[in-house]
Amino acid sequence: MPHVDTHCPYCALQCGMRMDETRVGPRDFPVNAGGLCQKGWTSGELLRTGDRLTTPLLRRNGELRPASWDEALDFVAGRLAGLRRDHGADAVAVFGGGGLTNEKAYQLGKFARVALGTRNIDYNGRFCMSSAAAAGLRAFGLDRGLPFPVTDLAGAGTVLLAGANPAETMPPFLQHLRNADLIVVDPRRTPTAEQASLHLAPAPGTDLALALGILHAVVAEGYLGKSYVDERTRGFEEAWRIAAAWWPERAERVTGVAAADQRRAAELLAQAENAYVLTARGTEQHATGTDTVGAWINLALALGLPGRAGSGYGCLTGQGNGQGGREHGQKADQLPGYRKIDDPAAREHVARVWGVTPESLPGPGRSATELLDSLGRDGGPKALLVFGSNVVLSAPRAQHVQERLSSVDLLVVADFVLSETAAIADVVFPVTQWAEEDGTLTNLEGRILLRRKALDPPEGVRTDLGLVHGLATRLGQPAERFPTAAESVFDELRAASKGGPADYSGASYQRLRSGEALHWPVPSEDHAGTPRMFLDRFAHSDGRARFTAVDHSGPAEPSNAEFPLQATTGRVLQHYQSGAQTRRIAELNTVVPEAFVEVHPDTAVRSGLADGERAVVRSRRGETVARVRCVPSMRPDLVFLPFHFPGEGRANLLTNPVLDPVSRMPEFKVCAVSLARADT
């Protein structure tokens, strides 16, 4: 097969790549301009991993043993039918992923609601983008991570990054910021913060107070964009009544960020001809994540940035299809096109496309954390099907989640290797990898991309679409209702999304193959797409954006004498998400082969630890064992753990499952912990 132009399998930047068999190289594409990160360069190695699954596995006498596809499909379909018959449709649940293609996300939502009839479907994007999505909907009436192309950032004079570390999570992104004064808000001095003109390091869980302090400085120093606020927004007075009490000196006492630095941030943003405020996981993954993102949006609105050419607010999406994955139906409360599942008009439209009645569609289901917690309980699901996720590592309070997974009558996992979640399943289906199938993804700027098939999968491996088709037909669905060709599924997705907030109806594989840059919404086949949103009006009925009255409350779990430190989690350059992919690439795993904990040297000494020793990090939920790294730039009250590692090194054994009341996002970014020497 000749070389194929495609896209990286990892983050939402979706860098352009060129593949020749399993050899990978960069190509000139707007988001990466011919560059790739270390993960992208080595992504071809994943296609040759030695522990690739090539046959279904069925648990017999406690062990996973090879089975034929027909045997495994018949077994699963029979068990699903029996559980639905005996306990109702909601006895079966589906858990998807933000790395799945648009076609897979769409088909999973349809499969859950039509073939299974269950309301219990959600996905791991609930752990990733839900707070920013909720805040964006509240402020602008519509959620698209970046409502402008990434390349617009090259013209910025100042960019504020709140809770983002793209130097490690998406390195090619940084080239778009090289002309700007960079303000980085992060408790850690990350590689991104090292490149900043101004690094603001708030105490863990105090980002919202910092945003209020900077907003106060904007108004007090005369930087408020009054004409913009008057003409294009609502709710400023209510938001200001709270921010008025957060003068920078008060915010300094709470956050530890100097009042002078808060005022300097306000000045840099206000005096730049073009400026942007960008948020990411560090801002969102809190029990107050929606309000915290809302506070940064308030700052952007006060400066008159959103909906202005050359300036704006945006969120850096994390997973490869984190944007498209939440638009087309695998989220508990949504139907395709970013429609709400409890909207009668949306139900009628989608039901018509699917060939069913609106009354047959279930209502909203449980969010991801609540869904996992309900497994095996009275009234909870008794079976779970997992696609594109490794929740044994990625979910908060991970040991509890593993126990819930072990309690169900049937756990089915679709994966290409025996991930930590697949290893405890009753049935495992081997499915294709990114380069072995066609499919679309939507990157962080809302651009619909065609990731093309570059090589054939190993014999015995099927696509997720083929797996869903096999189960659906065995459950009595017409074969044509669940096609296996990605382009056919996408054409149906286009029809289902038509008229919705995320309208893909005018996009097509033909247009994408020809190289057209199509940012949604694309409401017709002669429409050029919408690279820049909100230039004329916001998506609320009156065309105005909304300030939100938000106040600081702090972490859900403050530190105390027993747990005197705060732990935060995140990613490192060499690994991605749960590490199921990158830990199988020798070049990456050799650099970072095991769990570690970053600690200030003084904190290590007080805990009786030295650099390189093994430590136990404990929280109220469990303990993690990790190698100590003494980092002088760390805050003495903070430790950092990457969440890529299995076994006793799972960072999410510690994390707090308390949820944001709006987004249902868990508080990954801060939990109270203690630190001690590990037993030898």
TrEMBL record:
Its EC number is 1.7.99.4. The keyword Transit peptide does not apply. GO terms for molecular function: 4 iron, 4 sulfur cluster binding; metal ion binding; molybdopterin cofactor binding; NADH dehydrogenase activity. Residues 1-49 form the 4Fe-4S Mo/W bis-MGD-type domain. It comes from the Bacteria. It is an enzyme of class 1 (oxidoreductase). It holds the Pfam family Molybdop_Fe4S4. GO terms for cellular component: membrane. GO terms for biological process: respiratory electron transport chain. Keywords: 4Fe-4S, Iron, Iron-sulfur, Metal-binding, Oxidoreductase. This is Assimilatory nitrate reductase catalytic subunit. It comes from Amycolatopsis jiangsuensis.
